[in-house]
């Protein structure tokens, strides 16, 4: 039996909060509060100050209320699974494959998101406490078989500030290194490092004043936007929204208008990934309204708004927006050049290909993805995996299951190495569509490989 945090729950009730009320005040899901109270998860460090304020306790008192569950108390993975798709999984007894779980991704609140093959053959995504997954893995394989999870994600660049360089410049250089690592290693390897950088900046701001403090706020906003991206790629959309909201607040406080526009456009992209079509269109429109005229930032808003139109089934508005973006990126822009400088015609066409697939134009989508993949720099490994996975979905309809499965297998190798939930989500969707062709050699090979990095319902 899991030891419940009765004192924490009592304090919540004493302050007049229901579980739903406290969750709303913290901008988390009710299930997160439930996990805290049942000892199956812990608040993230960035949540602790707000939580202490709501419960009207000191930091030390909050730590006491959240006393850790004794290590000898077994926590079973099927006690609190949560499906991250539309269909609930019911009760899961998830036993890790001894070969390792390539689909595992660290989330907020000390949890892990993993893909699971149900007894009916479907793939769903579930979350469970990290320690529960580790214990199950140890029981199944005799040892922890989750590289990068047994002791936490592998660290990114070491957080060492040079005494000869201003802290703001140090932190900007470190962020560039993390961004470069992200496209090669994926989010699960560096998300912890990125959040640690935010905490460091907050400490530095307490000791700074004037222009230094304002510059640190700007860098803090840049890191928050990056954290939002990492959680978005990792499939934790609620955490991605949290960090995007913080990034907008901090960029506004720092007076960095271009960064605020950039983050607003990125929020439109996140809404598109969540299939919130109206939010995608409206956020993109907002970004374009406040963007410098004829800038890359205006083009970025057009791109993410275009996909929102595709999700709404409005092909004409979709294509007009992509054409507008192409026109904007074809003209050199002096304004807002430091934000969205990576946006080019190849990226616009890659996003158009995704929208073609949504609109059912599969041949155009497959052709667009092929061109986008050829145009990608070699270092953009994770993006290559995303494009391959999306291309495989279009190829199934355009050229048949054999080629789709071969392309999907290539994407799977990148997904396993990076932990990108965007890739796994595409492959999980394709897996169900390929089921009628399970006897085809390429399809069988892909589905078997996908099984090897998934949990299995028992």
UniProtKB/TrEMBL annotation:
Transmembrane segments: none annotated. It comes from the Bacteria. SMART domains: HTH_XRE. Signal peptide: none annotated. It holds the Pfam family HTH_3. Residues 8-62 form the HTH cro/C1-type domain. SUPFAM superfamilies: lambda repressor-like DNA-binding domains (SSF47413), TPR-like (SSF48452). Gene3D superfamilies: lambda repressor-like DNA-binding domains. CDD domains: HTH_XRE. This is HTH cro/C1-type domain-containing protein. It comes from Kitasatospora saccharophila.
């Amino acid at each position: 039996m899991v030891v419940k945090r009765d004192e924490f729950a009592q304090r919540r009730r004493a302050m007049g909060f229901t579980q739903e009320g406290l969750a709303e005040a913290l901008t988390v899901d009710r299930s997160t509060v439930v996990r805290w109270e049942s000892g199956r998860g812990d608040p993230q460090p960035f949540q602790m100050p707000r939580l202490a304020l709501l419960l009207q306790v000191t930091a030390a008192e909050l730590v006491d209320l959240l006393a850790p569950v004794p290590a000898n108390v077994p926590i079973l993975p099927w006690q609190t699974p949560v499906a991250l798709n539309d269909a609930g999984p019911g009760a899961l007894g998830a036993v890790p494959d001894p070969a390792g779980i390539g689909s595992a991704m660290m989330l907020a609140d000390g949890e892990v998101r993993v893909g699971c093959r149900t007894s009916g053959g479907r793939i769903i995504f579930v979350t469970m406490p990290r320690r529960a997954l580790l214990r199950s893995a140890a029981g199944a394989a005799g040892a922890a078989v989750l590289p990068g999870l047994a002791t936490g994600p592998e660290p990114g660049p070491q957080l060492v500030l040079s005494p000869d360089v201003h802290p703001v410049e140090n932190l900007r250089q470190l962020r560039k290194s993390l961004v470069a690592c992200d496209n090669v290693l994926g989010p699960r390897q560096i998300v912890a490092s990125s959040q640690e950088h935010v905490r460091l900046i907050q400490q530095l701001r307490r000791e700074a004043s004037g222009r230094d403090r304002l510059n640190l706020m700007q860098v803090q906003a840049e890191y928050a936007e990056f954290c939002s991206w990492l959680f978005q790629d990792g499939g934790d959309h609620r955490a991605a929204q949290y960090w995007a909201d913080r990034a907008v607040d901090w960029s506004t406080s720092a007076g960095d208008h271009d960064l605020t526009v950039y983050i607003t456009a990125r929020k439109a992209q996140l809404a598109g990934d969540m299939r919130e079509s109206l939010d995608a269109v409206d956020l993109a429109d907002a970004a374009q309204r406040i963007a410098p005229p004829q800038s890359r930032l205006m083009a970025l808003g057009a791109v993410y708004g275009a996909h929102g139109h595709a999700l709404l089934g409005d092909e004409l508005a979709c294509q007009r927006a992509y054409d507008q973006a192409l026109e904007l990126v074809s003209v050199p822009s002096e304004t807002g050049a430091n934000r969205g400088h990576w946006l080019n015609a190849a990226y616009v066409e890659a996003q158009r290909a995704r929208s073609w697939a949504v609109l059912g134009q599969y041949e155009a989508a497959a052709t667009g993805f092929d061109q986008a993949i050829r145009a990608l720099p070699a270092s953009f490994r994770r993006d290559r995996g995303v494009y391959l996975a999306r291309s495989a979905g279009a190829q199934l309809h355009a050229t048949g299951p054999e080629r789709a499965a071969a392309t999907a297998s290539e994407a799977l190798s990148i997904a396993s190495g990076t932990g990108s939930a965007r890739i796994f989500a595409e492959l999980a969707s394709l897996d169900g569509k390929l089921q009628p062709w399970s006897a085809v050699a390429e399809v069988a090979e892909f589905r078997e490989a996908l099984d090897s990095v998934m949990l299995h319902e028992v």
